[in-house]
Amino acid sequence: MLGDIWVYKKTSRIYVTLLLLAVIMLATQNWQLGVLLFIIVAGCIVYTKRCDLTQEKKLMKYLDDLSAGVSAGTVYAVKNLPIGIAMMDSGKELVWTNGVFRSWLGDDAQEGASLQDLITGQKISKIWGKTGWFDCHANGTFFRVFHKYVSDTEGMEDPFMVLYFMDRTDVEVAVRECADARPVFCIIRIDNMSEVTSEMTDVERSSLLSDVTEKVLSYFNERDGFIKQYNNTDFVACISHKALVEMMEHNFDILDTVRAIHTVNRIPVTLSIGVAQIDDTFAKQYDEAQVSLDLALGRGGDQAIVRIGKDTKAFGGKAPTSVSSTRVRVRVVAQALKEIIEGADLVLVMGHNHEDFDALGSAVGVTHLARSSHIETHIVLSKERDTCRKMAEAIEKSGEVEGLIIDAGEAKSLVTDKTVLVVVDTHIPELVAAPELLKKVKKRVVIDHHRRAKSIIETPLLTYMEPSASSASELVTELIQYYGGDEEMNEIEASCLYAGIVVDTKSFTVQTSVRTFDAASYLRRCGANTQLVHGLFAEDIGFIQKKAQILAQMKIAHGCIAVAECPKDAEESQILAGQIADYLVTVKEIRASFVFYHAEKGLCISARSDGSINMQVIMEAVGGGGHQTVAGAQVGDEADQEAITKTLIQEAEKQIEEEKE
User: Among 59, 107, 221, 406, which residue is least crowded by beta carbons within 10 Å?
Assistant: First the structure.
């Protein structure tokens, strides 16, 4: 419209100019008539000009009124849009908000308030200076927030950020409902029914099985799950993710419920549960649930293993691992191992790094099996030999097994396609004495007494894991008895195996069974030298003084958890830490001990318990593992020792509280 007015004004000027020229020309012919006509034209021009000014004033007033109306409408719309709008300055404080924002976030959402104090789920400092979006929640409402950084607006001295809040609570609720309804597969097994019912009558056996079955079926039915029993001891179930979360929050109390069932022979019934939830087909989820069950059984049973994606969590594991009275499996494993060894041209044996007497002793026992089959054999030791140094020296001094111990470099040069590598006293690939050798040798055998961890050596020809055994040396001793070789054990071999059992049982005081004493008795008959073993454990006076200094600085948490630390410059720190941890759990009222020490790989922990606290579960919380009463972890140089100590104490307290319940 303003453009049209401008064109009109230009056109009127042309008309006036032409009219004046006509008047001048007329005046040249008749000046009187020209003057009269000029007066008339001038009056018309003045009148027209005044009319134009009047119309222009009316038009400008109309435009001013229209602009004010639009501005008022814009302000009203901004203030009352169905989205929350806020402006934030560089101090992360609100400088302006609309009414919707204030109604959503409450009375505290005023100018000058900190936005970080109003929302949860996003650190405001991380988005300053950026444009994008994030999700957060406040006052029970979920928001998606779009934010724009503004730094070059005229009239604004400081940069600011505009945030647009959109309520997406209904979407979030729908997403969570879908997530809660996702299917989760479970495989349940009564893992010791044969041992529990071995001496029961048929009536007692049937009654016990009925009680256990009723408890298991009721537990899953109460959570709206599908469960099907497909033989006397095995069940398959499908539950929702919401039900799984509830079970995890209650630490799978079905394990405690079943364990509390009365049996005539006082042996508790235990369950093993494998659970899996992954973003894959149902068939794959079932396979992963079976893997979880195998892991639970490999860790000794009486526990639930939950695998959600790549995350694995363990629950339970309170009952001591039951020891099978039958030795059928030992005989079968011994014969399978014999076939593997006799098909090899070289047998290499190694344990975990920082080998202890059990790792080296059981390795010596395996080399005896290879010698019995007349196969060349060697033990591969890591560079960290402080813990087993005395035993290694005793082996070399004996003269009975020359060239038995080699290093990883020499071992790799001997490897062929027919070489067999036997790993003892560990099944975790990251902890073996020579990881590169493990990758190079394709034929592997695993013999271990620890509960199965998340990580395990892949594709072994044979795996023999018995968490109920006291030590790897006990397992190897039993294999020797059923191997059927024609080579007699010599004194140093029997003594090394005997020392391995002694060190892991704390001189036959923990984790022992009838089979432990049978193995020790067999070794004694084979010539195990107790004086030699005693010498391996002998300590000098300086070592005792170091232990006394460390014990003097020890701290006690909650009256039953001992925490100590070896100095950084302490020699043989791993041995020192292990012995102190062992000693502490023999002290009255001490139920768990954690001793920190410093090694080449950084800060490490030796952990022990009197059997009432599961050390394996606690060490797994800080990246380690081990056995129920003996465990450890390597946490590295950059670890926060105070934070780790706090975690260890909290995990121990959790088990103590669960025991009270």
Answer: 107
Q: How far apart are CA 335 and CA 479, in angstroms?
A: 9
Q: Facing residues of 167 across strands?
A: 143
Q: In sequence order, which ranges of 228-327 are alpha helices (DSSP H)? A: 241-249, 254-259, 282-298
Tokens of 182: 């996702």
Output the CA–CA distances (angstroms, integers) from residue 201 to 206, 208, 362, in the order listed.
9, 11, 40
List pLDDT tens digits, range 134-151.
989 888 889 989 998 887
Distance CA 323, CA 466 (A): 9
Write the CA distances from 582 to 239, 458, 546, 565, 598, integer angstroms: 43, 32, 15, 14, 18
Do residues 80 and 72 lie in contact, with contact meaning Cβ atoms separated by under 8 Å?
A: no
Q: What radius of gyration do the chain's Cα atoms show?
A: 42
Question: pLDDT tens digits for 218-255?
Answer: 999 999 999 999 888 899 999 999 999 999 988 899 99
To 5 degrees, how large is the angle CA 648–CA 653–CA 655?
100
pLDDT at 204 exceeding the cut of 90? no
Cα→Cα distances 480→10, 367, 368, 485, Å: 117, 11, 8, 8
pLDDT at 122 over 80: yes
Contact 184, 238 (CB under 8 A): yes
Query: Rounded distance, CA 550 to CA 593, Å?
Result: 13
Q: What is the CA 553 to chain-centroid distance, rounded?
A: 32
| Joined tokens for residue 386 | 């402080």
What are 124's two structure tokens?
């405001």
First-to-final CA distance of the chain: 85
Beta bridge partners of 313: 306
460 half-sphere exposure, CB direction, 13 A CA radius = 21
| CB contact at 8 A, 184 and 276 | yes
- Are the beta carbons of 447 and 474 closer than 8 angstroms? no
Angle at which helix 472-483 crosses helix 357-372, to 10 degrees, equals 10
In 350-434, which residue ranges form alpha helices assigned H by DSSP? 357-372, 389-398, 408-414
Enter the tokens of residue 11. 């056109």
Print the SS3 string covering 583-635: HHCCCCCCCEEEEEEEECCEEEEEEEECCCCCHHHHHHCCCCEECCCEEEEEE
How far is the C-alpha of 650 from the C-alpha of 642, rounded, in Å? 12
Of 546, 540, 590, nearest to 568 by C-alpha is 546
Q: How far is Cα 120 from Cα 428, in angstroms, rounded to an integer?
A: 40
> Quick check: 158 pLDDT over 80?
no
Tokens of 272: 């093993």
Of 107, 130, 128, 129, whose CA–CA distance to 117 is shortest?
107
Tell me if 225 sits within 8 A of 254, measured CB to CB: no
Give dist(CA 319, CA 300) in Å, integer.
Answer: 9
Describe the chain by its helix, strand, coil percentages, rounded to 5: 45, 20, 30
